[in-house]
């Protein structure tokens, strides 16, 4: 039986946030990440012709790559990106119409929230996960842990300030996956002709996620 979108997201444990400046750069980043084993990417609406780039990536990689759309703030954007191949829809903020449009299309909804009120409102509106953004600006892993204390049922994805140095803390605090920006999606590496930097970072992140989870399993035995 094929994995669900949620199962893939949690297994990989990473959502690389792709804010490329053009389609060529976007394709190069995805190729480099996939060479390192990361098979999930969030294509943000800040990317020029983002919907077309999503469509191109879907045609190129098919089921090998789990595609999401990011920085989605209207129901129309959600619908357009889903039609182009997005299986999950991410927002930096809370937009109830985006959640509704995403769920109506049968896709995974990941709205943004920061305060307890925003987070629980998103969850009660049907969010599958809530993106805590900008997480590092308000305390990082300790803030995530504090949110989960009264709301243990929440599935949270911290974004903003996630690096190889902070990732372990976020995972131990209860993150279901990590939204990762420039620490993995290194546009300068593409510009400088060193995509292997991204490939190495992808491998390092996957190794870290696996190690933290293994340690957690061992400690509960």
Q: What do these coordinates show?
A:
With about 220 residues, the chain is of the alpha/beta class. The chain has a single domain, classed as Aldolase class I (TIM Barrel, Alpha-Beta Barrel), CATH 3.20.20.70. About 50% of the residues lie in helices and about 15% in strands. It contains ten helices and nine strands. The chain has helices at about 5-10, 25-35, 50-60, 75-85, 95-105, 115-125, 140-150, 165-175, 185-190, 195-220, and strands at about 15-20, 40-45, 65-70, 90, 110, 110-115, 130, 155-160, 180. Strands 5-4-3-2-1-9 form a six-stranded parallel beta sheet. Strands 6-7-8 form a three-stranded parallel beta sheet. Strand 4, helix 5 (about 95-105) and strand 5 (about 110) form a beta-alpha-beta unit. Helix 2 crosses helix 10, helix 3 (about 50-60) runs parallel beside helix 4 (about 75-85) and helix 8 runs parallel beside helix 10. The two termini are about 30 Å apart. The mean pLDDT is about 95.
pLDDT under 50 segments (min length 5)?
A: none
Shape: globular
Mean pLDDT: 97
Q: What is the share of helical residues?
A: 40-55%
What CATH architecture label applies? Answer: Alpha-Beta Barrel
Biggest beta-sheet profile = 6 strands, parallel
Q: Strand arrangement, largest sheet?
A: 5-4-3-2-1-9
Task: Count the domains.
Answer: 1
CATH topology: TIM Barrel
CATH superfamily: Aldolase class I
Radius of gyration of CA atoms, rounded to a whole number: 16 Å
Overview features:
221 residues; alpha/beta; TIM Barrel; three-stranded parallel sheet
